[in-house]
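In this section we walk through a basic example: taking a raw amino acid sequence and producing a predicted 3D structure, encoded as discrete structure tokens. The instruction is simple. Fold the sequence below.
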Amino acid sequence: MRLTSLPAATALFITLSNFGPAMAAELPVAGTIHDPRQMPEGIYNLDTSHAHTIFFINHMGFSNYAGGFNDISGQMIFHPKAIETSKLNVTIKVASVAVNSEKLVGHLQSLEFFDAAKYPDITFASKTLTALGTDHGTMTGDLTIHGVTKPVTLDVHFVGGGVMPMINAQTMGFTATGAIKRSDFGMTGFLPGLGDEVKLDISAEFHLADSTPPAQKH
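The resulting token sequence is shown next.
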């Protein structure tokens, strides 16, 4: 098997289409805040265009096969003065799974794997957040896949924050890594040749929601 049909093949779902020719000559580094406690409090919406969830799974002992999902949405309730109380909810559409084979995409959506018709969503709801330093920590939450909910812990790093110049919005970016066993979620097809451990690589940007009523905007 090969890795392919990912919409942004060079970076697995990182979309650069928002940067038009007018911006190509010069683009500032906007994420210059590296302590999340300096960011505004509020509700932040996940930017689907600048997010990826990539998974890696051992293929018969020959390779670590990669795939991911295109349709990711979510919301973060952020409290900079009490970061441990911040909350995150994310939904991934199983039908958006992407790998290097259209045939395999269909197989992954079938009863032998995700069963997308019966279980269309993967969800994550954070429960606890533990700061281990200024810009990193661990997040534990409930992960639901294939109709089964299990706790999972992710190592989270704050990449940067600041005002996104294209949309003039307060923005924060994070990465997260972790691992799960697919058998814990009832996905036992083709074990042990197709590995049980699934490694996760996640990256996402979040924009502060605009709560100003339209009539008050200038």
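Looking at the output, two observations stand out. The longest strand covers residues 42-59. The chain has one domain: 35-210. In the next section we compare this with other chains.
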